[in-house]
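Worked example

This section walks through a single chain of length 363. The input is the sequence exactly as stored; nothing has been trimmed or padded.
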Amino acid sequence: MSCHIAIACGGTGGHVMPGLATAEVLRARGHAVTLWLTGNPVEARAAASWQGAVQRVPAVGFPTSLSWRGVRAAWKLGRTRRVCYRKMRSAPPDVVLAMGSYASAGPVGAARRLGIPYVLHEANVQPGRAVRWFARGAQCVACHFEETRFFLRRHRVEVIGMPLRREMEQAVIDAGDLSGNGWFTLLVMGGSHGAHRLNEAVSTAVTTLAAQGQRMAVIHLTGEVDRETVSARYAEAGVEAEVHAFTGEMADLYKRASLAVCRAGASSCAELCLFGVPALLVPYPHAANDHQTANARALERAGAVDVVPESDLSVAWLTDYLVASMQKRDRLARMRSILKLRAKPQGAERLADLVEKSAELSR
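Given that input, the structure is written out below as tokens.
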């Protein structure tokens, strides 16, 4: 039976993309799906392919103190919930799916007031404030990491993985064995924030190795600001490099990578597992609650990745690390195998199943 499903996935690309992946699955199953977004530029880029209904709602970060700034934030948060309540009351969905972040607080708050069931998804090891606040009344909290159970012991938790785009998962199936043999290729990804430090450290280390006769191919996603500088640096050193500001063709890059150096956002961690790409994770130090470090350490404990804090990332250290990685292909192969075991394909389908069950229970 067809349902009306609201998906609150506003905020960052890390919330929009898994929400959108789940929305596409639900719509393919015949459900009416509405995305609840804030309308910021990041969302606009991430959800550009969405052809379905959208509700635009205001959103504001959570208050963090008893200061006047915190009071104003709390007042704005209350106003946001009232706006969401009026919109949701006029066309109530059968169930609400919230992907976390401050942007989900308004829609979930409205759903609770209206008695509409809701499902939460937590992408990181450590639950964010939105998930912690609303977990008690949720039909279910779906999560990506098994380690998240520790933080939500009193709630119903289902480990379903990370909803990824269908074409991303299909690319792994089509590629077959991704053993990473052959020419050593380094994939560098700085993420949407804090890319400059990685760009500088990695490009300097790679060109230093090139001067010493140690050669590798590099695929470097720099962000727009550093693209020309990094590209020129590689060209001058004679490094075989592809430099992109951004790209929507990540599957092809993962398939060619022998090793990745990147941040530890939940989507990146899930994609590394899916494609089995060994990685040196450098958690973004300013992420809320330092959640990227928790993500990285969970994979490190499993033996799947290496981790270095940004404060310890020197060119000399990174140069030695890259040389050791090129020499120890057997170690990279073991990491690749562990990552594949950690992968949880069909996260979007599993999350869609939970949403459908919640809608059925409400009828």
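What to look for: The chain has two domains: 4-162+345-361, 169-342.
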